């Protein structure tokens, strides 16, 4: 029985970064899919600590909050930088990814996609700056080994390629970063799998 269980809706949403991390690290996990109807009618919502999903189980440890789960997996698999300095930078990047997630979720809900896409280069610039500062953009977002923040950033960028195809064309370093990470053998296999391909980014829409 896989030690990990992800309890979540049938979307990529807040869980795809952790799925990519687990797949790339050669781990298996169980999915417990919760439909919107069952979520509203079942006692599951009341049982969740913050009244929201995802819920993540690592053996007898139950965690909520997607970024806390990513950090837990980062510590578990040594994906948290090589020292405290790098760990601090990894945390900074991950918080930056969270900021962008919050930016794009609201305008898309409110029909403001065109304006958001126009503003997108400004949201992506910090990550390009960080890449340039780290081995000229030829490596990971921090240091010379992959971190949990890389998976979160990769998920964010892949989502944007669905949202606005071609949106990374004016960001060659980010585009090369996506290509480079997506070519990692286990991650490449996961990204080509039906589990990933057939799972919408958010809700009934692609994003």
TrEMBL record:
One of its GO terms (biological process) is glutathione metabolic process. Its EC number is 2.5.1.18. SUPFAM superfamilies: GST C-terminal domain-like (SSF47616), Thioredoxin-like (SSF52833). Residues 83-201 form the GST C-terminal domain. It comes from the Eukaryota. Homodimer. Belongs to the GST superfamily. Pi family. This is Glutathione S-transferase.
